[in-house]
Amino acid sequence: MSTLRIGLVSFAHTHATSYARALLATPGVEVLATDPDHAERAGESGGPAMARELGLDYAEDLETLLAWRPDAVVICSENTRHRSYTERCAAAGAHVLCEKPLATSVADAEAMVAACEAAGVFLMVAFPVRFHPAFAALRDAVAAGDLGTVAAVSGTNNGKLPAGRAWFTDPALAGGGAMTDHTVHVADLMDALLDGVPPVGVYAQANRLLHPEAAVETGGLVSIEYANGVVATVDCSWSKPDDYPTWGGLTLHVVGSEGQADLDAFGDRVDGFTTGRGQTWLSYGEDLDALLVAELVDALRTGRRPQPDGAVGVRTTRVVEAAYASARSGQPVRLDP
Amino acid sequence: MPNPAGPPAGTTVALVGAGGIAGVHLQAWLALGADVRVYSHASAARLVAEVGGGTVVDSLEEALDGATIADVVTPTFTHADLVGSAAEAGCQVICEKPLARSVAQAHQMVAACEAAGVRLYPAHVVRFFPEYAAAHAHVAAGGVGTVAVQRFSRAGSRPERDWFADRALSGGIVADQMIHDLDIARWTAGDVTRVFAREVSTPDGEARRGVVSAQVVLTHAGGALSYVTGTWAAPGSEFRTRFEIAGTDGLVHHDSARHAALRIDGGSAGASRGLLPGGSFMESPYLTQLRELALACTGGPEPRVTARDGVEAVRLAEAAAMSLETGRAIDLEDVR
């Protein structure tokens, strides 16, 4: 088994930590990290110190990392920097796994797909929840017709206001707030359930009642119509209180002609209570980030294109872009299928 | 067994209608110690026999004549005429939700009751379900801070009576089933300014009708957002309600499938309870509702629901219907 070289680009998104752990735990994988923009994140973890803590070798800049000739890179930068990092890494011949959302505009997302195609590398988007075995079982049940014809889906992806990283609420770096951060996970699951049927209509409303000091929307509802007539609504709000026992959660309720299904992606847990600390949640579920990384590594080893790919990234970005347009206008937005 | 906290002795109720909800109301009225006259163009005798109380009368006039309260539990499209007759006869009026098929009709009913000097209360019974009442009391006391985003979900087997399936008669799932949660959303987050709705139906089969699911997004005057979804599911589906209300200082949520005081596993023979939620050991919310409304009708304190709430719920349902028809978000100001 040849050794794979995987570069970790930026620690801006805190998922870099779990991807680093998963990569380091994978046999036959060498990891080199760089966090070129960490000086901008004053007072936050990052750079060589964070690399040391994670046990990662560190490169001072992207050029040094790319000169190491990585087979692939995992990009965990701020959202609006995904495009430039993807383009530079693809041009250097590295396959790309990009943190979600793929981009903050459809134009950027399409440019990233084009750049990777031109460079002959694949583009994968970090949507870990679709690797949950329970979601795989739901997807199989839907594909087998166990629920009959799927008619409607209600999804939630609620979390706390992201802590420890100020850029999440900086529109210039994040592209938006909760609607940017949390619509795409459910949109990706819908994409997987419906096998890529495109969204054709989006209505959304957003507000800033929670954490009104934030410069971005913190509450949002996104209603999506798909080309096959299925409708879905996503609650993407950062509505979990700061001292909630966990970061948040993701649920799906699927209504079909012959039955209904409920997925709680973080339902594998023991609930408890600790005096003085309040509620305790002991998760024993799968490490979804590790499953995502396993898909990347397997694709590299077997020479196939992994899922979810750039096309999913574009379709989910299209939903978010339309959601902002709708929230601004107060009316639904039509999308070309 | 008469309930000591019920309306004054001698309170007479004209129960108009003998369909699904009438039995529940009749039981509640009897428990409250009321004298009940039951009028229906069909099956009043069967209802009285099944419940074991109440007196069958042969005409609406006979039912209303001298009655303290008229309780109208007929199909929606008949409410306006019956409420008008009840008001004219001088009865205080309780009317099953939705109050009417249109806002205009609801306004007429309110005007008729005002002109006759009688009260009109819509039977938005979900306000009396203890889980919703507890959540509302908590929210009203500031327990979650300012409400920001809330979700309400209601799913159960599709009703089998034909009039439910006729949108002209029932208003469809939004007006008939989801009006409960549209009302609760307004109860906890205040008046609404904008409504958007989507609805999907699967095709009817030979043996049964298809499944209907609708999704409504409300924007409240204070900026809060509500998601309301309702499903008329496949036959035998468990009746299930859920909600979450999230605000600046916390959240509350409830799931009827997870908060049950008792579960009995009946094995493969266990049958679905169908349309009405069951399995609670609390007082029947229908009884709580009719006691509170009956007391209000007989000089007691104002109840937790008013005629305006009934009109506004119809307005929300009508806006949702307009949204379904046009594919547009509807400004509530435009629904009159």
What would you note in describing this structure?
The complex is a heterodimer of chains A (337) and B (336). Chain A is α/β, with parallel strands linked by helices and 337 residues long. Chain A has two domains: 4-126, 3-Layer(aba) Sandwich (Rossmann fold); 130-288 and 317-334, Dihydrodipicolinate Reductase, domain 2 (2-Layer Sandwich). In chain A, 34% of the residues lie in helices and 26% in strands. A seven-stranded mixed sheet of chain A has the order 12-11-7-10-9-8-15. In chain A, strands 3-2-1-4-5-6 form a six-stranded parallel sheet, with helices on both faces. The N and C termini of chain A lie far apart (43 Å). The mean pLDDT of chain A is 96. A seven-stranded mixed sheet of chain B has the order 12-11-7-10-9-8-13. In chain B, strands 3-2-1-4-5-6 form a six-stranded parallel sheet, sandwiched between helices. The longest helix of chain B has 20 residues, at 307-326. Chain B is globular and about 50 Å long. The chains are: A alpha/beta (337), B alpha/beta (336). The A-B interface holds A 148-149, 151-152, 154, 156, 158, 201, 203, 205-210, 218-221, 223, 225, 229-231, 233, 235, 237, 239-241, 253, 255-260, 330-332 and B 146-149, 151, 153, 155, 194, 196, 198-203, 210-211, 213-215, 217, 219, 222-225, 227, 229, 231, 233-234, 237, 246-251, 327-329.
In short:
The complex is a heterodimer of chains A (337) and B (336). Chain A has helices spanning 15-24, 47-54, 62-67, 82-91, 106-119, 133-143, 171-174, 178-193, 288-302, 310-329, and strands at residues 4-9, 29-34, 57-58, 72-75, 95-99, 123-126, 150-159, 199-207, 219-226, 231-235, 248-256, 259-264, 269-274, 278-283, 333-334.
